[in-house]
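Q: Got one fold?
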Amino acid sequence: MLTNSRRIFLRNSIIAAAGLPLLGCGNTTNKTTTKKTPEEMPESTLPYLDTIGIQLWTVRDQMEKDPHGTLKTLKELGYYQVEFGDTRLLGELKPVCDDLGLKVHSSFINWNTVTGGWQYTPDDTPFEFNEVLDQAGEAGLSHLVFGYLRPEERTSGDDWRKLADDLNEAGLRAKQSGLQMAYHNHNFEWDPIEGTTGFDLLLDRMDGDLVPFELDLFWAQIAGQDARKTMERISNRLELLHLKQLHPGTPVVTRLDDVPGNAYEELPDGEMPIKELMRYGKELGVAYCMVEQDGNYDTGSLASAEKSLIFLQG
């Protein structure tokens, strides 16, 4: 493992020599929308509309049945980019996105390539983080997202400190390959542990230049955190946003198993001020935004994806 002094030296050298370019934030229904080019949009228009994306986990049921048709539909709905859930899918599906004019700037990674916890997912075939970097590089990505941690790997404060160290090293290797790592939160980061939380331990130990946050607004809010205040708290290391709506009246929970099935909503159907948070994100320099919904769909996942996008375009 790299020493702190060696990591800081390499990090500063890489960042100074080659900064990463920023991005813009980025069964259908019979609704139609009229898209406008950026030049036609008034200054008051919501930011990120011209580069708005969607995390493909939202439509995972449709991707499993018909990935090509689902990607085509997302493009027709008006999404500019998609965020993949696994870099191993890029080889097959990135060319499809290219043909459709659907951008792919980021992807989640298999977390075991960073943590080494393959014993907890025995059905998965182990592979190395170097392969993740190769897959992302070949696809021309700019961002890799670490998006989950098994319960067995977060049982103590030391577990969170180890994760921060592992992420710092992975983030440095990504930077050396021209990529940017990011950390995507759930609610369990705020589950109390040894008088603190995993989130606070990450803030203390994780290098914000090597591993900034892709903040999921829903997960912060359901964990009892005010989404805007959380954005402000990590403003110097906030790069990406997941736009997800919380069902009104949902209780505060900090464990995934306690999340009610109806907690997820389309963007217009909750009390979180999504548009205000996007505008605040623009003030803070957020690079791009992704719509996401984990379940509790309107009439289907694609219909929900359309409903959320129409709300943003409205």
About this structure: The mean pLDDT is 90. The domain at 24-30+45-313 is CATH 3.20.20.150 (TIM Barrel). Residues 117 and 223 are 25 Å apart (CA to CA).
